[in-house]
Amino acid sequence: GAGVSQSPSNKVTEKGKDVELRCDPISGHTALYWYRQSLGQGLEFLIYFQGNSAPDKSGLPSDRFSAERTGGSVSTLTIQRTQQEDSAVYLCASSPLAGGPGKNIQYFGAGTRLSVL
Amino acid sequence: AQSVTQPDIHITVSEGASLELRCNYSYGATPYLFWYVQSPGQGLQLLLKYFSGDTLVQGIKGFEAEFKRSQSSFNLRKPSVHWSDAAEYFCAVGARSNDYKLSFGAGTTVTVRA
How far apart are CA A52 and CA B1, in angstroms? Predict the structure, then answer.
């Protein structure tokens, strides 16, 4: 597609439920990233994919968070047993990761706003 | 570990006035440097980037930024602000050796008054 696409744009859930957030990166981009943006905070790195593998999961805040990427394209971020502190905007980005310093320019989607009641 | 500081949480500026947003970073070597803008309900859009060479970089929408190694700064400027520049601005750094992982500042919200 033309840009990074995320769905849903908004998600309201009850505490304790599981949620899945989807990211469709720019076609041909090798790298995919998930960030979390809490109210009044900057972006917090969650996880990075190179192809289908995740060399860096260091930002995942707990074992309730997991992510996968299939076919080198779409990625899903799953949050199990959601808590109120999980409420945030979850942003996805992708980058080409091929050739030259421009390889790490990250292009962002509009995000999914998650509200846990 | 690298870190990014944006000292100003909120700036209000009159339309037509100049704007400068501050960004300081802490890192052992010269990183890659970026400025992103986020309008309400939108994702982050890249304004400009610095990798090497000329320390004054031009970006989209009339923005420019200057890298000052001695001050570990990468301040963003615009000579004349338009009402559409009201948004949140984020400075980000990426390590050259591990450049997939960006560290972002907390952001500066810009309000433009008529």
Answer: 27
Residues of A with CB under 8 A from a CB of B: 4, 6, 31, 33, 35, 40-43, 45, 48, 50, 56, 91, 93, 95, 97, 101-111
Q: Which of the pair, A111 or B30, is modelled with greater confidence?
A: A111
Q: CB-based contact (8 Å) between B69 and chain A?
A: no
Asked whether the beta carbons of B112 and B83 are under 8 A apart, the reply is yes
CB contact under 8 A, A111 and B36: no
In which element (H, E) is residue A25 found?
none
Residues of B in contact with A104 (CB under 8 A): 32, 94, 99-100, 102
Query: What burial letters (b/e) apply to B39-73, b meaning 16+ CB within 10 Å?
Result: eeeebbebbbbbbeeeeebebeeebbbbbeeeebb
- CA A10 distance to own-chain centroid: 14
CA dist A61 and B38 (Å) reads: 24
Residues B36-64 pLDDT 10s: 999 987 889 999 999 888 899 999 999 99
Residue type at position A115: S
- The answer to whether B104 faces chain A, any CB pair under 8 Å, is yes
